[in-house]
């Protein structure tokens, strides 16, 4: 049995006019948990079905398993591990994790806490004398960019160069050949090549040299799995650089916007700093930084909610819809930092659970705690704020506030 959802629902979600509030459309989409689209792809929107398929070994992240690969993917170079399946995915993720967290580097994230606090404090110090602040440009963007540059070993002063490339890459993620100009795809492909070439140049300087940054460690590591090839290191660094700040910018900005819309909770966080840990988990459910996984592939025929998805089909996963599913979360459209059993999909699930989730959590906890403590009577200038183009990585492009 197949279920066909009115295509207009998905098209309206992807349309920019819905960016400020896609949640009513997600509710409409959830009426058909697995929805066949006109182009033969499938959209999954309910928590139970999303959670199940994210753990299904028949779900592939490898473009080679799509019957009809999308144009952007045909032109990409060596994929990062996020676009691979076991055993290659497991090997590369394991090699990268050796330098990013337990068990080989257990103190990396927690050891960054003093540095994160210092960066945040310096950025907020720069607010002095400003009546109007852009939380994005003045804070939520420079903070995680500084952090990921430090971790990877990318010169912070090169940010203006890779910022343009990252924007073009993110903009191309939702490329639709039926509605978008070919230039959008071409710019994304060129930006990917430019960023890879840039990272390759940095990598050449790291071979055989000591250093604590991730590029140097990956370039010189001879662990039990062997050493990554240069192409694999570049693909991993490319993933970490983009994901290491794009999602955190959105999470911090969405978080501040949500707190300003809920002043009682903002005040409560001032009074109860320990509230920040469950509050960030609720943010990941309520206003997540990643809304959609735009494609996965079916290794073989998969049955989801009585719908047979044929082998090779493209599958779109609506993570943000699943995290607002009333069949899983009580009163899901209510922001509640005291929520129990908050198994959201904000960082995905399964073998592709967000690699940098622990760092993003700590960055957001540090950022929001400092903002609510140090900003005096902040107020939104525009609500809703202007949003970035992407329906996949969703967040305000600017968030102007005034403080009295």
TrEMBL record:
<keyword id="KW-0479">Metal-binding</keyword>
<keyword id="KW-0408">Iron</keyword>
<dbReference type="InterPro" id="IPR017972">
    <property type="entry name" value="Cyt_P450_CS"/>
</dbReference>
<comment type="similarity">
    <text>Belongs to the cytochrome P450 family.</text>
</comment>
<keyword id="KW-0349">Heme</keyword>
<dbReference type="InterPro" id="IPR001128">
    <property type="entry name" value="Cyt_P450"/>
</dbReference>
<dbReference type="Pfam" id="PF00067">
    <property type="entry name" value="p450"/>
</dbReference>
<keyword id="KW-0560">Oxidoreductase</keyword>
<protein>
    <submittedName>
        <fullName>Cytochrome P450</fullName>
    </submittedName>
</protein>
<dbReference type="InterPro" id="IPR036396">
    <property type="entry name" value="Cyt_P450_sf"/>
</dbReference>
<dbReference type="InterPro" id="IPR002397">
    <property type="entry name" value="Cyt_P450_B"/>
</dbReference>
<keyword id="KW-0503">Monooxygenase</keyword>
């Amino acid at each position: 049995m197949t279920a066909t959802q009115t295509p207009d629902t998905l098209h309206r979600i992807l349309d920019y006019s819905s960016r400020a509030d896609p949640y009513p459309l997600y509710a409409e989409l959830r009426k058909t948990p697995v929805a066949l689209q006109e182009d033969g792809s499938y959209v999954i929107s309910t928590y139970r079905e999303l959670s199940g398929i994210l753990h299904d070994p028949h779900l592939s992240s490898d473009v080679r398993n799509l019957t009809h690969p999308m144009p952007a993917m045909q032109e990409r170079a060596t994929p990062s591990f996020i676009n691979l399946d076991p055993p290659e995915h497991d090997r590369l993720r394991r090699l990268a994790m050796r330098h990013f967290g337990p068990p080989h580097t257990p103190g990396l994230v927690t050891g960054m806490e003093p540095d994160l606090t210092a960066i945040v404090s310096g950025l907020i110090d720069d607010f002095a004398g400003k009546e109007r602040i852009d939380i994005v440009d003045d804070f939520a963007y420079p903070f995680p960019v500084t952090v990921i540059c430090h971790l990877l070993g990318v010169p912070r002063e090169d940010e203006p160069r890779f910022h343009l490339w990252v924007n073009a890459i993110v903009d191309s993620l939702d490329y639709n050949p039926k509605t978008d100009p070919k230039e959008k795809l071409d710019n994304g492909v060129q930006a990917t090549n430019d960023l890879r070439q840039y990272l390759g140049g940095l990598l050449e300087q790291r071979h055989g040299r000591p250093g604590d940054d991730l590029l140097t460690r990956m370039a010189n590591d001879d662990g039990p799995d062997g050493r990554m090839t240069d192409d694999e290191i570049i693909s991993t660094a490319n993933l970490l650089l983009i994901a290491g700040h794009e999602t955190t910018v959105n999470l911090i900005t969405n978080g501040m916007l949500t707190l300003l819309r809920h002043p009682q909770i903002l005040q409560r966080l001032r009074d109860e700093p320990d509230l920040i840990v469950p509050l960030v988990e609720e943010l990941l459910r309520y206003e997540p930084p990643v809304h959609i996984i735009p494609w996965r592939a079916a290794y073989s025929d998969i049955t989801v909610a009585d719908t047979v998805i044929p082998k090779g089909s493209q599958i779109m996963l609506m993570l943000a819809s699943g995290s607002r599913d009333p069949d899983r979360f009580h009163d899901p459209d209510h922001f509640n930092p005291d929520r129990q059993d908050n198994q959201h999909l904000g960082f995905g699930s399964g073998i592709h659970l967000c690699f940098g989730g622990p760092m993003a959590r700590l960055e957001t906890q540090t950022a929001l705690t400092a903002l609510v403590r140090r900003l005096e009577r902040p107020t939104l200038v525009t609500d809703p704020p202007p949003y970035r183009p992407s329906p996949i990585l969703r967040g305000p492009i600017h968030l102007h506030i005034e403080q009295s």
